[in-house]
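Narrative of accomplishments. A recurring question from our advisory board has been how the design workflow behaves on a single, concrete structure rather than in aggregate. To address it, we present the structure tokens for one chain from the evaluation set, followed by the sequence designed for it. No filtering or post-editing was applied between the two.
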């Protein structure tokens, strides 16, 4: 968010005061975000991740048949945490099997230079306000993973309309996808029972 300053004789003093007033709340907001908790491994199928993505109701689990540990709340990337990959959890259309049609989730792993991504994730969210022409978009859920396989759930900063900041998406697009898998989450159309002969 770029501010435009009026030029005048008292520019240095006004500029310093303006910058202090503008940047302090943003820096404070970034510091107020709790630090993300480091867990043993990323999990796109935890109930918290599925609820964040709108794939299941809060407190509900997916239909994978295997219980998944609770995921910690998303937070600020911890100082000293050095990720080597990022796992992106996103709605993945539908899947069909003998049970019927399922809402699906796609989990993909991306590797490359993660410094721009971490820098983008550490930016504070913009203050909400102004006129927004479109509804807020739900961002994919991310897990940053280090060389030991440990993971953190970073907060994806938002713009003034509550949509995911483009800087994170741009940094993600620069990475190479190395693996991707689709998982059934919620049965939406049960298969018709076969006729008995």
């Amino acid at each position: 968010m770029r501010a435009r300053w009026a030029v005048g004789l008292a520019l240095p003093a006004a500029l310093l005061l303006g910058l202090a007033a503008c940047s302090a709340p943003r820096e404070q907001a970034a510091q107020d975000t709790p630090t993300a908790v480091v867990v043993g491994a990323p999990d796109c199928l935890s109930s918290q991740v599925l609820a964040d993505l709108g794939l299941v109701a809060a407190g509900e689990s997916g239909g994978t048949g295997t219980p998944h540990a609770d995921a910690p709340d998303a937070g600020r990337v911890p100082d000293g945490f050095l990720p080597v990959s990022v796992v992106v959890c996103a709605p993945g259309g539908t899947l069909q099997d003998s049970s019927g049609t399922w809402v699906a989730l796609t989990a993909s792993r991306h590797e490359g230079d993660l410094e721009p991504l971490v820098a983008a994730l550490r930016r504070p969210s913009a203050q909400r306000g102004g006129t927004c022409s479109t509804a807020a978009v739900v961002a994919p859920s991310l897990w940053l993973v280090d060389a030991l396989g440990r993971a953190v759930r970073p907060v994806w900063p938002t713009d003034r309309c509550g949509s995911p900041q483009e800087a994170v998406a741009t940094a993600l697009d620069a990475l190479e996808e190395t693996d991707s898998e689709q998982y059934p989450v919620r049965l939406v159309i049960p298969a018709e029972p076969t006729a008995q002969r």
